[in-house]
Amino acid sequence: MIKGFKEFILRGNVIDLAVAVVIGAAFTAIVGALVDGFINPLIGVVFQVGDLSSWVLTVPTLSGGTSTFQIGTIVGSIINFLAVAVIVYFVFVMPMNHFKERQAARAGAGQPEAEPLPTEQELLVQIRDLLQKSPGR
């Protein structure tokens, strides 16, 4: 039982996942600071609110009170998600895909291309030609 667990941990996927989670958490802090320090004030200038968290919609309720919808928090979360997705794609995914394509091109550069297999029709034509050339006809 312990041997199987050891193989599972040392396989590499678990360690890669753990590293990704730790880096993701640190990266989220950076993007969160970018959103809070730059994007939220920029949107605040456009929508004339000091901060997205102060952008609220107050609606009267049927009982005479009020209900507050925190629109700024929702918009801020969406912007935060999009910022993380864009940065992760352009900083990590796109360069890694480019690197893998280059590695695959280098690996395949030294190997000759295999000839494509003949189609069924081409094989039948070859068989017919060989039969016509045979001396037993």
Automatic annotation (TrEMBL):
Membrane topology: Multi-pass membrane protein
One Pfam family cited in the UniProt record for this chain: MscL
InterPro entries: Mechanosensitive_channel_CS, MS_channel, MSC/AndL, MscL_channel
Residue ranges crossing the lipid bilayer per the database entry: 12-35, 69-92
Subcellular location: Cell membrane
NCBIfam families linked to this entry: mscL (TIGR00220)
Family the entry assigns: Belongs to the MscL family.
Name recorded for this polypeptide: Large-conductance mechanosensitive channel
Lineage, uppermost ranks: Bacteria, Bacillati, Actinomycetota, Actinomycetes, Micrococcales
